[in-house]
Design goal:
About 5% of the residues lie in helices and about 45% in strands. By secondary structure, the protein is mainly beta. The radius of gyration is 20 Å and the shape is globular.
Length: about 375
């Protein structure tokens, strides 16, 4: 199986340039647009940095786990670190002795990562309890839940292991797709169901057996070649109550009622980063970083913004009545979630925000390409 590896915006723009050159019959590539200059902003709400830590080189496609009073994250060199949410102090740190390809997943006791040698490694506290070799590369953080470890490979196949002894319990494969996307996919739990993105579909699996309970189409791939028809669901997905929303790469944003396995609405938007959701709105940015916010119930557009186009935006984060994006210059941009009014701009270290923003209570975390971790809190 051939795999399309898309490593952030540089690779996407390279792919767009190649596509344009083929269409136009030209030899030159398309120059990446310059980031939109930032407008002067007078802060309308207060917020401040409360601590800063260093984690080493971050993973491509890394994620941060939120576990009670800790943030847990893994660096490319194989270190898994837990940081105190209040102070940033290191609560624990363990190394698996190998470079990693996927971020960390944890249920609070067990943590799981995948190495660049395709080994799944499971930690109990600060002690490795088992590791096993996989047949495919992994870039999506494992999910640890219900005494199982769930792994999604680059080809979007899914494997389940016993968290205590590493026994493989079941495998669900993907077939019929010539290309897959080397970008973190959709893998999350909803009550007693495992939700998995497989191509442009969201499967609801029985976590005990791997049996398919429901199969929902999130997008209809279109185009004249395999690259244009690529429509894998990309993470992070967004969930609020029974509503789960996800992006199909370069095609659409779709929301599903996970209780009834019924698609609520789908809207065309060509992008490749994850989404945010709250009780009223769903938000995301397209491939040009044009922000769109839809009403959760209907999918109607609430507002759009071109203020941050081509600034390399992260998946957004919903925080109370605000919506926050990170960008490729290390800024955090805070908007009102109902009108899109700019409220606050926070700085980090000038390097790109490389992980989806996360929060615990009022503490928001950002990780930069320079390997620094910043915690912010409103005042």
């Amino acid at each position: 199986m051939t795999r399309l590896r898309v490593r952030g915006r540089t690779a996407v723009w390279r792919w767009l340039a190649v596509s344009a050159a083929l269409v136009l019959g030209a030899c030159s590539s398309v120059e990446k647009p310059k980031p939109t200059p930032l407008e002067p902003l007078s802060a309308r709400i207060a917020g401040k940095q409360v601590w800063r830590a260093s984690m080493g080189k971050p993973l491509h496609g890394m994620t941060v786990a939120v576990l009670g009073d800790r943030f847990m994250l893994a660096s490319e060199d194989g270190r898994i670190t837990s940081l105190d949410i209040g102070t940033g102090a290191v609560r624990s740190q363990v190394s698996v002795g190998a470079a990693l390809s996927a971020g960390v997943g944890s249920d609070g006791r067990h943590a799981a990562v995948v190495t660049q040698n395709n080994e799944l490694v499971v930690i109990d506290g600060q002690r490795e309890i088992w590791r096993t070799r996989l047949n495919s590369r992994v870039v999506t953080a494992p999910l640890v839940a219900g005494e199982r470890v769930f792994v999604q490979a680059v080809d979007r196949s899914v494997l389940a292991f016993d968290v205590f002894d590493g026994r493989r319990l079941w495998t669900v494969g993907r077939s019929g797709e010539a290309l897959s996307l080397a970008q973190p996919g959709v893998l999350l739990a909803y009550r007693n169901t495992l939700l998995v993105g497989m191509g442009a579909r969201l499967l609801a699996l029985d976590p005990l057996t791997g049996a398919v309970r429901a199969d929902s189409t999130f997008a209809s791939p279109r185009g004249t070649n395999e690259v244009e028809r690529l429509a894998d669901l990309v993470g992070p997905a967004a969930r609020s109550g029974e509503v789960v929303c996800a992006r199909a790469f370069q095609v659409a944003v779709t929301c599903l009622n996970a209780e009834r396995n019924a698609v609520l609405w789908s809207r065309p938007q060509g992008g490749f980063e994850g989404l945010a959701i709250d009780p009223e709105f769903v938000a995301g940015a397209d491939a040009t970083d044009r922000i769109s916010v839809w009403r959760r119930a209907s999918g109607d557009v609430a507002w759009t913004s071109d203020r941050l186009r081509y600034r390399g935006l992260t998946a957004p984060l919903s925080v109370g009545s605000t919506l926050v994006f990170g960008d490729s210059e290390g800024w955090l941009h805070v908007f009102s979630h109902d009108r899109g009014e700019p409220l606050l701009r926070l700085s980090t270290d000038g390097s790109a925000i490389v992980a989806p923003l996360v929060r615990s209570g009022l503490t928001m975390l950002a990780v930069t390409r320079s390997g620094n971790v910043f915690a912010f809190r409103p005042e």
